[in-house]
Specification:
Elements lengths: L7 H12 L5 H11 E9 L2 E4 L1 H15 L3 E12 L2 E10 L6 E10 L2 E9 L4
Parallel strand pairs: 1-6
Antiparallel strand pairs: 1-2, 3-4, 4-5, 5-6
Helix pairs in contact: 1-2, 2-3
Pfam family, one: SnoaL_2
Protein name: Nuclear transport factor 2 family protein
InterPro entries: NTF2-like_dom_sf, SnoaL-like
C-alpha cells in the first residue's frame, strides 16, 4: 500500500467544478481522463453509469435538463482516508436559490476516482 495520501479535496472539488460544472464536453472529457480511473462507475439515485464517456454524456444530459444558469457548488472541504472521501455540495441557478443539496462519496484508487456515489438530500 502506498504511503502517498491522495488530495481528496482537490479530486472531489475538481469533479464538482470542472466535470459537473463544465458545459464544454471536450474540456470536461480531458478532466475526466485526469481524475477518474480508466473504468469508473457513477452511482446516481436512479442509474448506474459505467465508463468515462458515459459519465460525460450523463453530465451533458443533466446540465441540459437544468438550463444554462444552473451550477453545482462545493460546500466546505472534502474529507477522507484509506481511499474513501466525501464532499457536500449544493446546486441551483447561479444567482438564485439552492434547489438541491447532496454529498458525493468517492472510492479513490491510485489517486483517482474509481466509484462515485451521488447522494441527494431529501427535499425540505
Amino acid at each position: 500500500m502506498s504511503s502517498h495520501k491522495p488530495d481528496y479535496d482537490h479530486l472531489l472539488r475538481t469533479n464538482i467544478e470542472r466535470v459537473f460544472g463544465e458545459r464544454d464536453a471536450a474540456k470536461r472529457d480531458k478532466v475526466i481522463a485526469e481524475i477518474y480511473t480508466a473504468e469508473p462507475v457513477l452511482l446516481e439515485p436512479t442509474d448506474i453509469v459505467q465508463g468515462r464517456d458515459n459519465i460525460s454524456k450523463t453530465v451533458d444530459k443533466l446540465l441540459e435538463q437544468f438550463g444554462p444558469d444552473f451550477a453545482f457548488m462545493p460546500v466546505g472541504q472534502a474529507n477522507g482516508h484509506h481511499g474513501l472521501a466525501h464532499l457536500a455540495w449544493h446546486a441551483g441557478p447561479k444567482n438564485g436559490p439552492v434547489v438541491v443539496t447532496g454529498v458525493d462519496v468517492a472510492e479513490i484508487v491510485d489517486g483517482r476516482i474509481a466509484r462515485l456515489w451521488v447522494l441527494l438530500d431529501p427535499p425540505v
